[in-house]
Amino acid sequence: MLSPTPETPPYALTIASSDSGGGAGIQADLKTMTRLGVYGGSVIVGLTSQNTRGVTDTHVLPTAVVRSQFDAVADDFDIGAIKLGMLATAEAVATVAECLSEYDGPVVVDPVMVATSGDRLLDEDAVDAYDDIFAQATLVTPNADEAEALTGHVPETPETVRAAADWFFERGADAVLLKGGHVETGDGTVVDTLVTREETTTFTNPRVDTDRTHGSGCTLSSAIAAGLARGDDLESAVEQGIEFTKSALAAPADVGTGPGSVNHLVDFDN
């Protein structure tokens, strides 16, 4: 007879929506957390009928169900970090903001507005509701399109990067990672910029020449949340998140008949 040897892994929670194809959303978050040594839990806000070619349908769960999921997890687990993904509606955003008001750990906010396929994932009237979410964010991770839509600034120069970051700071966020995947640098690189109120740090990497980018944003933000749940400082968590996402892009999953997905099973030294 074997005697079990219990372990106590760090625990992180994703509050997001399901991607039935498995490349993004809750599925990407949980795969990423597991790969990085973190036990992941989930609060499912909505369901998407989705594959590598696009989104064909969405269904947002009643806010009472969203709330009950959070309460069940918070009542039983020591949550080391929370990651937010697709919240879809103003009502869901408001409910999640109420949940966060009862949590004092790190929160990573991926302001998901549009899928890689171009399908819109956030109602127009939900954008303003995000202010209460940003006020509780340890880190916000917008891509260039999301940053422009929210702040009015395209983060492609030091001045516009700072202006976009200041917009989030005015709403209470502690830090912003302005992702550079949608910004052409002209030299074959991607520059991601981490901005806090005190300093700016850039991460420059070779651009991976692939259209199999489905799930990359979810993967990055959940990888950062995993690092924070383990107790990493913010810069270290961001750096590892970028490295894991780069690896998942460089060896993408050739699945489905569309462009495919990032590969959460990629060989990666944690």
Oligomer: single chain
The secondary-structure class comes to: alpha/beta
Tell the overall outline: globular
What's the β-strand tally? 9
Major β-sheet strand ordering: 3-2-1-4-5-6
Number of helices: 8
From the N-terminal CA to the C-terminal CA, the straight-line distance is 32 Å
Strand content: 15-25%
Average pLDDT works out at 90
The parts where pLDDT drops under 50 for at least 5 residues are none
Relative helix content: 25-40%
Kindly provide the radius of gyration, computed on alpha-carbon positions and rounded to a whole number of angstroms.
Answer: 17 Å
Biggest beta sheet summary: 6 strands, mixed
Would you give an account of this structure?
By secondary structure, this protein is α/β, with parallel strands linked by helices. It has 8 helices and 9 strands. Helix 3 (90-100) links the parallel strand 4 and strand 5. It is globular. The model has no long low-confidence stretch (mean pLDDT 90). Helix content is 33%, strand content 21%. Strands 3-2-1-4-5-6 form a 6-stranded mixed beta sheet, sandwiched between helices. Strands 7-8-9 form a 3-stranded antiparallel beta sheet, sandwiched between helices. Helix 1 crosses helix 7 (216-229), helix 2 packs parallel to helix 3 (90-100) and helix 7 packs antiparallel against helix 8. It has helices at 25-35, 63-74, 90-100, 131-134, 144-151, 158-170, 216-229, 234-250; strands spanning 11-19, 39-51, 54-60, 81-84, 107-109, 139-140, 175-178, 189-196, 200-206.
